[in-house]
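Hi R.,

Here's the chain you asked about this morning:
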Amino acid sequence: MTKLKGQALLTFIAKALDLQLDGLYDERLGLTIVDKNHVGTFVRWWNPLIDDGDAFRLSNKFRICIEYTSCEDDSPVVYCGIDVERSQWPMVSNAPDFLATTRRAIVDAAIDYITKIQEAENYLSQL
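And here is the predicted structure, written out as C-alpha cells:
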C-alpha cells in the first residue's frame, strides 16, 4: 500500500503521533523514543510492525477498526481502517503470521489516515 519503508515509515507515523524521537534507528528494532508513563521517563524501542503493544496503542490513538474475514477462496484476510466506508480499507492477507499481518494492516491504515489528514490540512491552508 505505502511506498514508505524502514526508518522513513516509522518516522512518518511517530511524528504524526507527536512521539519524542531519541535519534537511534535499527532495522529490526525500530526507532528509539522518549516515553513517559506513571513510572517515569525512559528511552525505549518503538516499532508497531514488530511490537503488538505499539501496534495496539497506534490503533487506539487513531481509532482504527480491525475486521477479520476471508476472501472468496476462504483465505483469511484482515481489514483495518477509520472510514465508515469499509470498501476503502486496505486489505492484507492474513497468512501465515496472523499477528504480523494485523500489525501491518494497522500501520497501513494509520499511514492512510495520516496522509488524508495532511492532504485536508494542505487544501484548507490554500483557501
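One quick note: Helices lie at 6-16, 52-61, 98-125.

Cheers,
M.
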